[in-house]
Amino acid sequence: MKPFVTIVLVMCIYLSGSDAGAGMYGKSVVFPAKTSNSFVMLRTPDFSSLSAFTLCFRAASEATRSYSLFSYATDSDANELLLWQHSKIELRVEFRSHKSVFILSEMNSLLRHICVTWESQEGAVTVWVNGRRSVRKVGGKGWVIKGLGQFILGQDQDSVGGGFDASQSFVGEISDVHLWDHVLQSNKIKNVSQGCLRKGGNIIDWGSTHYTFDGIVEIKDNKDCPN
Fold first, then answer.
1. Is-contact 156 168, C-beta < 8 A?
2. Matching CATH number, 2-221, of 3.20.20.380, 1.50.10.150, 3.30.870.10, 2.60.120.200
3. pLDDT tens digits for 58-85?
């Protein structure tokens, strides 16, 4: 019995995935190492589908390889919505088989605010970095993003909630993740980029969305976040 107790204690120290909470206002998530089991799972209200969205977050990474910034998977497609940093300057917004590629300033150790907007009617895809808009591109025209899927930070899902590969994992810091079911106006996106929100997205709200995490994940106070 004594050896069994010792093993359980060691596992609990390493596997923080038994922890859960509601909301991370004023917090950042740090992924300090490349692993195949470190992730944050966001538990959101059910929705049937999305014909538009605005996704915003802050992120920093010194990794020179490709990695997942944001992964949403459904039973129909593991890449229902994927934000993929393909190189230090190339961000890919993927809807299943379609990819919109944006060449941006180099991702580095300085936190930057990133927003992605999309709407189905015209298929307009736009990226915003620190409140500044990219060129508009076309992708997923007439499509919808299916509901009842799983949102994951830190890993690329090859199946719903799993299929992780260490070589695709995110190493760095991410915070202030928000997702709306519509396209925010440009002035609103600029305002979002300038400070933390106490009330955020109606699908993902960093201040209230329930989450669980596993592996080597650190939840840190974000002292740069204004009151």
1. yes
2. 2.60.120.200
3. 999 999 999 999 999 999 999 999 999 9
Phi, psi dihedral angles at 149 (to 5 degrees): -105, -165
- As a whole number of angstroms, the distance between CA 173 and CA 142 comes to 34
Name residue 31's amino acid. Answer: F
User: What does 144-163 look like in DSSP terms, one character per residue?
Assistant: -EESS-EEEESS--SBTTB-
Q: How many other β-carbons are positioned within 10 Å of the β-carbon of residue 125?
A: 22
Instruction: Return left, alpha or beta for 84; rule: phi > 0 is left, psi -120 to 50 is alpha, else beta.
Output: beta
Spatial contact of 137 and 127, defined as CB atoms under 8 Å apart: no
What is the chain's mean pLDDT, rounded?
Answer: 89
Position 148, amino acid = L
pLDDT at 195 over 90: no
Contact 206, 199 (CB under 8 A): no
Dmax (CA) of the chain? 64
